[in-house]
Write a structure and sequence with these properties.
single chain; about 60 residues; about 70% helix
Length: about 60
């Protein structure tokens, strides 16, 4: 596991723990919530998905 992956995992864990502490989610919902938060953090960090507006701008600037 790379350092970046470890940082993503740590950030996702901290977010889920805060949500549990504040009562936003219950520990029983951990599995699904963690997967969703992990994917969101990973996408934000690694830029796996571009927003449609960004894709349009990139296509226009390639001339």
């Amino acid at each position: 596991m790379s350092s970046l992956d470890e940082q993503i995992l740590r950030a996702a864990k901290e977010i889920v723990v805060k949500f549990i502490e504040t009562g936003r989610i219950s520990p029983t919902g951990f599995h699904e919530t963690f997967k969703s938060i992990y994917r969101t953090v990973e996408t934000a960090v690694k830029g796996l998905e571009k927003a449609p507006e960004q894709e349009a701008e990139v296509g226009e600037n390639e001339d």
